[in-house]
Design a protein that fits this description.
The chain is an alpha/beta fold. About 30% of the residues lie in helices and about 15% in strands.
Length: about 350
């Protein structure tokens, strides 16, 4: 008989899709969500009534105790996401992501938890993606300098010889070098969960490193929204999507339905726990994604505007080696970007 799964952040963009899929698979589902104003302008209409719902955050000891009562597995989706406004957000990111995770893990340890814990991690823990220099081989470029970005020099050079680099897919065992506050908090979440898994006998911990997730129920245009949502919100307001840098940054865009399915697989006790990229395995540029979204928006939609603007916390190229998730989890993305953008162009945002 399927067990009961707690989904933290289960009213959010990704979490709500995980809830729907777990219920469809026959699991009992309990949701813990505080309806954070950065993610929710109002209570969403899509919440699945078949899931038990507890309103509260991970800092609410009473709500957390009620949420954990009798659960067999935890899908930890709750987090503050995105680059935010500026460094003044650092306190909030650390409180919600790291202290919140520590409270969850402490409560699980106190209860002698012996089930599966799946952490929603992120590709941001890598920093820049994989690169290779024709002369020097595989290298890790340094963080890009503001002066280079202001001059339109967006591609990181080889840190050894200064020659141009070729971006490569990044595997899970690559060095980790977060380059934003959000990224640093996601890496700390991974560290905490890995230590919990090592010390808590019987607990199985999996970290899913989501790449650029998009799809229905994304939050609207806020400093905490993903790039697909920002472009979609601009088009809805009759504005051109503003593409930063030169639009040639490569990412791996993965549909939220595929991400939910990866979570379901990770909660299968027959699958090995570990760290997995959750991605399509097909890199595309941000400019390409913007163009597809505009094309699906219909005649008269304003063309993407390549602005040359930048955010210092952004990286140039990062896209996944999806081989481990395919081999060990049995996960392969099913929704291509063209299909996904057709759906997303008309999807409801929140």
């Amino acid at each position: 008989m399927p067990g009961r799964v707690l989904v933290t952040g289960g009213a959010g963009f990704i979490g709500s899709h995980v809830v729907d899929l777990l219920l469809e698979a026959g699991h009992g589902v309990r949701v813990l969500d505080c309806f954070h104003p950065a993610a929710h302008r109002e209570r969403p209409r899509y919440l699945n009534p078949a899931a038990e719902r507890i309103v509260g955050d991970l800092g609410d000891a009473e709500a957390l105790a009620a949420a954990l009562d009798g659960v067999d597995a935890v899908s930890h989706q709750a987090a503050m996401v995105g680059l935010g406004k500026d460094f003044s957000d650092a306190r909030d990111y650390v409180r919600d992501n790291d202290l919140g995770t520590a409270r969850l893990l402490s409560a699980l340890a106190e209860r002698g938890f012996r089930g599966d814990l799946v952490l929603a991690s992120s590709m941001v823990v890598y920093g820049e993606g994989g690169y290779e220099c024709d002369r020097c081989g595989p290298v890790r470029p340094a963080p890009r300098e503001r002066a280079d970005l202001e001059a339109g020099r967006f591609e990181p050079p080889c840190p050894r010889c200064g020659e141009p680099l070729r971006p490569r897919p990044i595997p899970e065992d690559a060095p980790l070098e977060p380059r934003s506050v959000y990224a640093a908090t996601k890496l700390q979440q991974e560290h905490l969960c890995r230590l919990f898994g090592r010390e808590q006998e019987g607990a199985r911990v999996t970290a899913l490193r989501y790449h650029n997730v998009y799809g229905p129920r994304m939050p609207r245009d806020t400093p905490y929204a993903g790039v697909a949502s920002i472009f979609r919100s601009a088009l809805a307001a009759g504005r051109a999507p503003a593409v930063f840098e030169d639009g040639r940054q490569r990412r791996d865009f993965v549909h939220v339905a595929d991400v939910a399915r990866a979570n379901l697989l990770a909660l299968d006790p027959e699958r090995p726990p570990g760290v997995y990229n959750v991605a399509s395995g097909t890199p595309r540029t941000i400019g390409e994604m913007a163009g597809l979204l505009v094309a699906e928006a219909g005649p008269g939609a304003p063309a993407p505007e390549v602005t040359g603007r930048f955010r210092l916390g952004d990286v140039r190229h990062v896209f996944a080696d999806a081989g481990r998730a395919r081999a060990e989890l049995g996960f392969a993305a099913a929704v291509g970007l063209e299909q996904g953008m057709r759906e997303f162009a008309g999807a409801e945002l929140r």
